[in-house]
Structure formats: C-alpha cells, structure tokens
TrEMBL record:
The chain crosses the membrane at residues 267-288. This is RING-type E3 ubiquitin transferase. It comes from the Eukaryota. GO terms for molecular function: ubiquitin protein ligase activity; zinc ion binding. Pfam families: GIDE, zf-C3HC4_3. Its main location: membrane.
Length: 392
C-alpha cells in the first residue's frame, strides 16, 4: 500500500491524476451503459406470464400489417418458478428436480462452490503511522476454488395457473447475469495453523484461513421477474437474457429497477464529474510544475554556458595580455607603422582572413571577430577569423 501511495504521488501527482482520470472515464462509460438500459426498461411492458403470448402475437400482426422492421420484443415478465419438460407439462413432484445433497431442498438451479478465504494484517505493527488505525482490523479476501452450476428446464407461470401454454420458458444459454439464488447450506472449514501462515501474518502477506462450502438453489414456487427478449419457440413463449441490460432474473419489479438504476446513475454522474475535475486539476498542476522546472533548467544551462564562454574569453584576453605585456610596457619604442590601428597601444600581431591585413593586436582582433558582422578595419571586407603572427 505504501509503495502504491508513493508511486501515485510521484511526478507531482501525475500518476494519481491519470489514475483518477481513468476512474472518471469508467464512470462515464458505466453511466452511458445504464442510461441505455434504463431507457429500454422504462419502455418495456411489465406483464404476467399468461399475457406474454398474446402480446407477442399482437406485435407480429402489427409488424406484418405495417411491413416495418422487427420491434424491440423486450418484456418484463413476472411469474412463479416451475419446472417443465419438453412437450408436456407435469407436476413438479414428478419431474427430476435438482436436490441439494446437504440440505435436501429442491430447485431448478443448483450452484455448488468452494471459496478459499484469506486474511491479511497489513502493517499490524504500525510500520506506517497513516495505516495504524486501519491495521487494527483484518482485511479478508476470497477466491473461488471451484464452481459448479446445474439447471433443469423451468418456466415462469401465472400464480395458480400451471398451464404450459400460459407460461414463459426461461433460456439461460449465454447468460452471465447474477441469479436470485437462495443459500441453503454453508460449511466453513478452517485450515490448520502452520509456521508459514504465522510468517505471512508477521510480514503482512495474505494467508488462507479456511474453505467455505456453499450450496445455493433457485427453489420451485419462488416469485421472480425476468427481463429479456421474448419470442415464440414451437408455439411456446421463451425469454432470453440481453447483454445490454444489468438484469435477467431478479426479485425486483419494474419500478424498483428504475429507481435503483436512477440512483446508481446519479452516483456515477457526480463521481465522474468530481473525479474528472480533480484529475484535470492534478494533471494540470503537474504539467505546470514540470514546465516551470524545464524553464528553470534551461535558464540555468544558458547562464552556465554564458559564464563558461565569458571565462574562456577572459582566459584568451589574459593570454593576450601576457603575450603583449612587453609591447604595452614599451609602446613608446614601437614605430607608428607597427601599432594596432584600433587601440594604438599594442603591437600588430593578428592578421585577418581572408583579406590578410596585419593591422590589429590579438585583443582587438578577438573583439572584431566577436561582432555580429566582423569587418576588417582597413578594407571593410568580411572577416572569418584571425591568425597570430609571430615576428622573429
């Protein structure tokens, strides 16, 4: 946890801003998904199982008369769970229902799972003062070890009307939605303590504390709501799940679904707005800090380069002074034709190229060369460089 916090706050919080931005984008995507689902659920009729057949036939007749494309055959069907067999309807007691091995209860869906439960005491010895309060409580996590789901054909029927013609067969093929199952058996089996678990607890790593065996069923006679696409198959209404909806089989009614989705959408909307604003602020702050640092680095580099060039010039001038020191001290002994035409105090010792005029001392020649447009003082021709002339 501490490493993640340090990583998030590194680069002036840039990683934290990007992470918050990603969460905000995910909130917006989930909001758009729920908005589409809410619109479809509001437009879908909520009917009983016995009314689905007539509504499907009515829609098919209207489509054939208008020659229009297929309409959205989505229904919200409320009914009671009953087991069925292909072709004919039988009493649920004569059908091979799924029976829980441990509880003995009967249902149409049986889910058996084994879950490994882990515990971890992160920083339980107060390695970081910020997590001392959190470390007073253990953090548990779970991991599915095995999962088995079995089902038998079942349908939603009108309460008190078990006729197959008035029922809606539920097709679970391809459905990944959560099912309204009832927990009928639980058995927690703790693992034996070991030195490895003790070392994991001391170091803050997670360690297994036991296996949880669970059995869940969808019992016969339970009132549920199915939300999906309905069509006639062999003259019998059938409903399938829709991947664009967050529900398939549930215990909620239409108004409860609408209110729940609306509340979740409001939470996602404001979460996206707040997190997005904070992310933009953090990223903008990080960019401005890095921009100011880059400008300061560039200014320091320029000042260091200018100071180094000035020190080099000073070194050249000092060398020129040391070379021409004797000439300066005895400038009265230099003839007029040998004096520098610029300063008139030192001996001529530098010839310009390409003109070749020997008219300046080394110091003045360096000053002329550093000009923006260096020109020879005599012929006014452009100067590329100068050469030291030694007179023996």
């Amino acid at each position: 946890m501490a490493i993640m916090v340090q990583l998030a706050l590194s680069a002036d919080g840039a990683f934290l801003g990007v992470g918050l931005g990603y969460v905000a984008v995910r909130c917006v995507q989930k909001y758009i998904y729920l908005s589409s689902a809410l619109s479809r659920i509001r437009k879908s009729p909520e009917v009983h199982a016995s009314e689905v057949r007539s509504l499907i036939e009515l829609r098919e007749r209207m489509e054939n008369e208008s020659n229009s494309g297929s309409a959205d055959d989505m229904f919200i069907v409320r009914g009671t769970v009953e087991a069925v067999e292909k072709g004919n309807r039988k009493d649920s007691r004569s059908i091979n229902l799924l029976i829980s091995p441990d509880s003995g209860e009967r249902g149409v869906i049986l889910e058996q799972s084994q879950t490994c439960i882990y515990a971890e005491w992160r920083r339980s010895f107060g390695w970081r003062w910020a997590s001392r309060l959190w470390s007073l409580l253990p953090n548990t996590s779970t991991e599915k070890v095995s999962l088995s789901i079995r089902s038998v054909p079942f349908a939603l029927v009108e309460h008190g009307n078990p006729s197959l013609s008035d029922s809606v067969v539920v097709n679970l093929d391809g459905s990944t939605h959560q099912l309204p199952l009832k927990t009928v058996y639980q058995d927690f089996r703790p693992t034996a303590s070991s030195p490895y678990a003790f070392l994991c607890a001391l170091s803050g790593l997670k360690f297994p504390i036991g296996l949880l065996y669970e059995e869940k069923i969808l019992p016969v006679g339970k009132d549920v709501t199915a939300v999906g696409i309905c069509h006639l198959k062999d003259g019998i209404p059938e409903i399938k799940s829709c991947k664009d909806l967050p529900f398939f089989l549930c215990e909620l009614r239409q108004n409860e679904m609408v209110s729940g989705i609306s509340m979740e959408m409001n939470i996602l909307k404001w979460s996206g707005i707040v997190l997005g604003t904070v992310a933009v602020g953090i990223v903008g702050y990080s960019i401005s800090r890095h921009w100011n640092r880059w400008k300061e680095w560039r200014q320091v580099r320029r000042s260091s380069s200018s100071s180094s060039s000035s020190s080099e010039e000073e070194a050249v001038v000092a060398a020129d002074d040391s070379v021409a020191g004797d000439d300066e001290s005895s400038s009265s002994n230099i003839g007029d034709g040998e004096l520098c035409v610029v300063c008139l105090t030192r001996r001529r010792a530098a010839a310009f190229t390409p003109c070749g005029h020997l008219v300046c001392c080394q110091r003045c020649a360096s000053a002329v060369e550093r000009e923006n447009s260096p020109l020879c003082p005599v012929c006014r021709q452009s100067v590329r460089s100068w050469v030291r002339i030694y007179v023996s």
